[in-house]
Amino acid sequence: xxxxxxxxxxxxxxxxxxxxxxxxxxxxxxxxxxxxxxxxxxxxxxxxxxxxxxxxxxxxxxxxxxxxxxxxxxxxxxxxxxxxxxxxxxxxxxxxxxxxxxxxxx
Length: 106
Description:
Structural class: mainly alpha
Number of strands: 0
Number of helices: 4
Helix content: 40-55%
Largest sheet: none
Strand content: under 5%
Radius of gyration: 24 Å
Order of helices and strands: HHHH
Shape: rod-shaped
Number of domains: 1
């Protein structure tokens, strides 16, 4: 703990200066970068859930798990048309469930 400030003391700021600093931060490039990083981080955290969260039929879920798709985040940047054994019906179902998941998460 800083020896200059005692527990019972209150640190006072010049409100005008503090307000100006806050305003500068919210209009700065750094704020935009921090916000972008926060959104990106939340996007990754949101998708870090098991595949079972989107309630796929067991047969489809097991097929995807065997191919290494254990979590929702595993589908980031994946072309669903390139997944082996995934026909049109399964692809449309998977796409619809992922869409529902991301829509609710926003």
